[in-house]
Amino acid sequence: MTRPAWTPLCVPHSAAPLAIHLGAKQAECYGCLAIPASWLTDGRWQPLKRFLPTRFRPDLSTPFLQPRPVPLPLWGWNLRSLLAREHWDQIRREAYRDCGYRCRICGMIGADWPVEADEVWACDDRTNVQSLETVTGICSACHGVRHWGRTSTSGKQAAALRHMAAVNGMSMQACQTLVQARMDEWLNRSERVWDLDISWVARTYGFPSRPDAAANAAAEHENLTRAAERSFF
């Protein structure tokens, strides 16, 4: 396979002048600002590090993309359920703008819309606290890998696995092994009671949770678990 001559960048409109000053060019093959792929081997990418999709970062190692399923007790406990609609809309739209409407992981765009909002959570297995780290924009294909449970119930595992292998530069078998490890981890975590930390929202935006956040999230949790039961049983 011929190596692409260009590497796409995730550049917000406001940062385009800076990226161009640092050497980025408009690449017709991607329809966005990009750098020569050769720059990834000689260090010239470093001033543009903040704009490089994860899969192209020379300072990172694969896997760049893998399932990160939310523990079952926390299904439905997401920002869409916990925040006022206008606050969630502001957060997700800012995430789209910040990535230049290109996937932060693979650098591509989705088939139906460029990117979707991905809530990046960290699970602390010592304290049983799931903490929100940020919200970013990723394409629907990468989102399908991240939310493997939802992808499984819709019967789209094969396509997600192929995308995961391409992004990570790994074999299908290696990716399948990685998926199984993440799902085993999910099963273990789903047997425990978890606390949720969304203080990132208050620190970053100053937004409070909606008054009925707990009840709204609990209702969404029930809807999701019932839908999953129907899919599997």
UniProtKB/TrEMBL annotation:
Source taxon at top rank: Bacteria
Protein name: HNH endonuclease
